[in-house]
Specification:
It is a single chain. Helix content is about 30%, strand content about 20%. With about 350 residues, it is of the alpha/beta class. β2, α1 and β3 form a beta-alpha-beta unit. The relative contact order is 0.14.
């Protein structure tokens, strides 16, 4: 028997962490989706990230990472508000409909956080994630790292197909299901659409970070990429040291043997996956094992060696008794362990270190 009631889920909530590296602290926030407050209040993803930012700043962090890997998008209002946490009141994105183009402007009077910033993306980062990473990149507010994003620069509405009947006249409702219509396109503040093209990171970790993700350009019924005029409401001041930090990071990655091995294995995996699938059971097993071994190798290479793992913890955890920590909203020891082994997160921390050094020189 089940009792009807509200079920609260925190699986898609923003998750914070704090990373201690060489005696300095760095903040981290994972945002899996741009969610709204389902009750119509002010407790959406932007507010949650703002709360985590303030707590991380209280810890005295030397930089912040916003992780949008796997974030497929969500609320436009939330992404515009989130961008306002890092930028002055300016245009965040442009939305083009059939008859006009509307600029969406962040309305917070002051940014919440003004320090060094890195945004992590991958090919599953889409829509609102691309809006956020694009404006951070175009305004030179922070550094985008990862792989090329999904490339979804369109907005859709879902509408029912059919007509309502009239019970008084014994005319039934006619329902033919529903249809999804593309009604708008998003554009960067530069006027360039993210459609098909996505957002190219400043620092490319890998050509592909997720093994089996189709992107917008893989579908046959997508709209083309195009360009409109750049936004008019633009008063951004670039963050110091970004160009030098990007140059140093790309040199470091080019010389990193582990990243080279991951890329080589990804290429082998893609070639193997394109081969015809054998129908003979023996040859199919061989085919499957080759793919499986490559996938295991890639996942193993992505994990840091025990001597290289990061020191990751929940913000403010040291002030809470160990037997009470399990009751903290959002506290997840398994998530923290996963972060500590992440080779891409370690490189992102190094980029934050360089950004701190470059902006002061």
């Amino acid at each position: 028997s089940l009792v009807r009631g509200e079920i609260a889920t925190t699986a898609n909530k923003a998750k914070p962490a704090i990373i201690d590296e060489d005696g300095k602290k760095y903040g981290y926030i994972f945002l899996p989706v741009f969610y709204m407050d389902t009750k119509g209040g002010l407790n959406g993803s932007a507010a949650d990230v703002g709360l985590h930012l303030r707590k991380l700043m209280e810890e005295g962090v030397n930089g912040v990472i916003i992780d949008l890997r796997g974030n497929g998008g969500g609320s436009l209002d939330e992404v515009v508000l989130l961008a306002s946490h890092f930028l002055p009141p300016n245009t965040v994105t442009q939305l083009r409909s059939k008859n006009d183009v509307k600029e969406h402007i962040g309305k917070l009077p002051n940014a919440v956080y003004n320090g060094p910033l890195v945004v992590m993306v991958d090919e599953a980062s889409a829509s609102a994630s691309e809006i956020f990473s694009a404006v951070i990149q175009d305004s030179k507010r922070g550094i985008i790292v990862g792989s090329n994003t999904y490339g979804k620069g369109t907005a859709q509405i879902n509408t029912n197909v059919g007509k309502m009947g009239d019970p008084a006249k014994n005319i039934p409702d006619i329902n033919y299901g529903s249809i999804t219509l593309t009604t708008q396109k998003f554009y960067r503040i530069s006027g360039v659409s993210t459609q098909l093209r996505g957002v190219q990171p400043d620092v490319v970790f890998q050509s592909k970070m997720r093994l089996h993700i189709l992107t917008e350009k893989d579908y046959s019924n997508t709209l083309n990429n195009d360009t409109i005029q750049k936004a008019t409401h633009l008063h951004y001041v670039p963050f110091m040291g970004i160009d030098r930090t990007i140059e140093n990071a790309n040199k470091r990655l080019a010389a990193n043997p582990t990243f080279k091995k991951i890329e080589e294995s990804l290429i082998q995996l893609q070639l193997q996956s394109k081969k015809p699938v054998p129908v003979d059971i023996k040859r199919y097993v061989e085919y499957y094992l080759q793919i499986s071994e490559l996938e295991k190798k890639i996942e193993s290479l992505k994990k840091l060696k025990p001597s290289e793992t990061l020191s990751v913890d929940f913000p403010g955890i040291n002030s809470i008794a160990p037997d009470l920590r399990s009751e903290i909203p959002g506290y997840d020891p398994r998530f923290l362990i996963q972060l500590s082994e992440d080779i891409y997160l370690k490189e992102s921390i190094q980029i934050l270190k360089d950004l701190n050094t470059s902006k002061n020189n």
